């Protein structure tokens, strides 16, 4: 066969392959005849290659030692290789791609030369990968060709192909090679001049918009209050990424100097057990890619996974193998506080450098969120401790009285307090709050509460105790003032001292309600306390009720305050009832009045003579 004859035969083969594609598209339900014809064309292609080799041998003999003979032969071989109308891949003995023809690049959707130097088995379906390696070894050892059907996945394209392997010896190569001819059987290929979608301006713009949308959604998710209150930032972020950016999302956080697996989100079609459990149990400390990212403090992307041991091992082998990984991306969380790993399977487009850039930003945001959550929880624990320091866990039993109280926290850390405690010859109680919000106000209230309780063990008059606490508060120079009421209970008599506090309400058995004097100047304003003092006699069935500013100042949807008149009306309807019933009735009425809204802390303390 002459060179012109060979070129003519190649053109004819190209035309017939094109006809097969059209037949496959026109008759999708009749694939068997198309496949048989395709295999016949594959045999024809093999024959053409054999005849081309014979022609090259003849040409070499005709050259009879001329220096330009081998170069002309090599040029002819390259021309045949490039013009071949089906994908041809030349592999070395380890399955690494050494050459590909233009048709291979077109079918797989990869740039020219992109696959050279990469492991071809990674393109093969996981279930057929071992079979491919066995066929490759057999072809190299025996020289006998092999053919089998498998799936190839790359750049988001999946092809079912008839893969034919043939051993060959290439000029200039010290080892034998294998030619792999892949004839697609179930995919409609793009036209020869079709532009790859990722190269179009519109596709690039959409990809950039998706990345910006991801950053915006991630920011909103991580700034949500619940994400700060509860340890949900990692799991929420992982689910968001798994929804559109990866098949597998893994978050590892550094604890006690070692990375520990925190979150694993698997593809939706994976059952909860099995492989998912193996990924969860695998130690990230044994992962090369996690160790590298944590050590360098920067992310890495593997557009094509060529080392399946990067993520470590499980009972079934390398994790990336059993996960069907085709592409991998790993970035640090925060400043190496952890690592975020994303894995895509073979049939999805690979991660790119642009994806790496946006995930670096996601990792930074996630690190800030985790640290903010830790700080928020520490502050919340401190706030809970402060709240515990301004309200007793339980009320003690006061002889001759029943006692009950309600403490309702407000929208933020407040400063109201109440207490019941033993004093010399009787019992004492206190209620009040600093004017302000936050930790500083709560700490001042805790100091006043503690001062009233401690000083009451030495003093017999609550007014003296209140005066000394005022003096101490002024000397502290906090700049805050505190409204407070303190009383000593001795028998049926209660001596009450008020420093700018609301007047206590006394509920009679017949339902009438009268208010004590109240008043005075709040603590912390003047070095000399200006208080209001009075003595009350509490008979059997009478109930003394003290309450906070938060109760009286609660407002409805029209902006009207709850007020003392409404309080008196509710208390009158509770005449003769137990203190627990009284405080609950007041709180229920306030709740209905304010439609459940609570801005300031609400404290209600009731003492009933029995």
TrEMBL record:
Keywords: Coiled coil, Hydrolase. Residues 35-62 form a coiled coil. The keyword Transferase does not apply. It comes from the Bacteria. Residues 73-143 form the PAS domain. InterPro entries: Bact_Sigma-Reg, GAF-like_dom_sf, PAS, PAS-like_dom_sf, PAS_4, PPM-type-like_dom_sf, PPM-type_phosphatase-like_dom. NCBIfam families: sensory_box (TIGR00229). This is SpoIIE family protein phosphatase. It comes from Nonomuraea indica.
């Amino acid at each position: 066969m002459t060179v012109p004859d060979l070129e003519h035969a190649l053109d004819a083969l190209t035309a017939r392959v094109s006809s097969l594609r059209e037949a496959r598209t026109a008759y999708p339900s009749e694939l068997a005849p198309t496949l048989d014809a395709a295999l016949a064309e594959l045999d024809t292609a093999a024959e053409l290659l054999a005849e081309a080799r014979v022609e090259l041998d003849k040409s070499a003999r005709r050259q009879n030692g001329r220096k330009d003979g081998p170069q002309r032969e090599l040029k002819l071989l390259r021309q045949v290789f490039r013009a071949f109308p089906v994908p041809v891949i030349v592999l070395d003995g380890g399955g690494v791609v050494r050459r590909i023809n233009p048709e291979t690049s077109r079918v797989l959707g990869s740039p020219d030369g992109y696959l050279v130097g990469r492991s071809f088995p990674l393109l093969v379906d996981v279930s057929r990968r071992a079979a491919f390696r066995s066929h490759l070894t057999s072809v190299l050892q025996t020289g006998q060709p092999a053919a089998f059907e498998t799936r190839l996945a790359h750049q988001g394209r999946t092809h079912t192909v008839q893969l034919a392997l043939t051993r060959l010896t290439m000029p200039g190569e010290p080892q034998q090679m294998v030619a792999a001819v892949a004839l697609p059987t179930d995919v409609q290929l793009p036209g020869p001049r079709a532009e790859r979608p990722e190269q179009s301006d519109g596709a690039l713009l959409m990809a950039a918009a998706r990345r910006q949308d991801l950053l915006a959604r991630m920011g909103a998710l991580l700034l949500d209050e619940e994400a700060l209150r509860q340890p949900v930032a990692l799991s929420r972020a992982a689910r968001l990424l798994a929804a559109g950016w990866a098949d597998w999302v893994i978050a590892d956080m550094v604890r006690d100097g070692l990375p520990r697996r925190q979150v694993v989100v698997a593809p939706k079609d994976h059952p909860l057990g099995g492989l998912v459990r193996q990924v969860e149990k695998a130690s990230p400390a044994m992962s090369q890619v996690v160790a590298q990212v944590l050590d360098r403090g920067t992310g890495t992307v593997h557009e094509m996974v060529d080392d399946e041991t990067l993520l470590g091992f499980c009972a079934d082998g390398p994790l990336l193998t059993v996960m069907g990984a085709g592409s991998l991306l790993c970035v640090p969380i925060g400043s190496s506080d952890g690592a975020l790993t994303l894995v895509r399977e073979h049939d999805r487009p690979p991660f790119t450098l642009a994806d790496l850039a946006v995930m670096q930003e996601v990792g930074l945001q996630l690190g800030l969120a985790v640290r903010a959550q830790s700080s928020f929880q520490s502050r919340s624990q401190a706030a809970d401790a402060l709240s515990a320091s301004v309200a007793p866990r339980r009320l003690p039993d006061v002889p001759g009285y029943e006692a009950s109280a309600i403490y309702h926290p407000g929208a933020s850390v407040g400063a109201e307090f109440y207490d019941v405690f033993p004093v010399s010859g009787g019992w004492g109680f206190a209620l009040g709050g600093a004017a302000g919000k936050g930790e500083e106000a709560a700490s001042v209230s805790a100091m006043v509460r503690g001062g009233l309780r401690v000083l009451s063990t030495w003093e017999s008059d609550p007014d003296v105790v209140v005066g000394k606490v005022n003096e101490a508060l002024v000397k502290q120079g906090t700049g805050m003032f505190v409204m407070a009421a303190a009383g000593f209970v001795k028998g049926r008599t209660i001596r009450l001292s008020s420093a700018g506090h609301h007047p206590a309400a006394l509920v009679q058995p017949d339902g009438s309600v009268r208010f004590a004097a109240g008043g005075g100047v709040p603590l912390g304003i003047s070095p000399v306390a200006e208080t209001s003092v009075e003595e009350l006699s509490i008979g059997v069935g009478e109930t003394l009720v003290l309450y906070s500013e938060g109760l009286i100042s609660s407002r409805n949807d029209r902006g009207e305050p709850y007020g003392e008149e409404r309080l008196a009306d509710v208390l009158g309807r509770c005449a003769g009832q137990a203190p627990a019933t009284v405080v609950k009735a007041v709180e229920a009425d306030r709740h209905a009045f304010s439609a459940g809204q609570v801005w300031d802390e609400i404290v209600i303390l009731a003492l009933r003579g029995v």
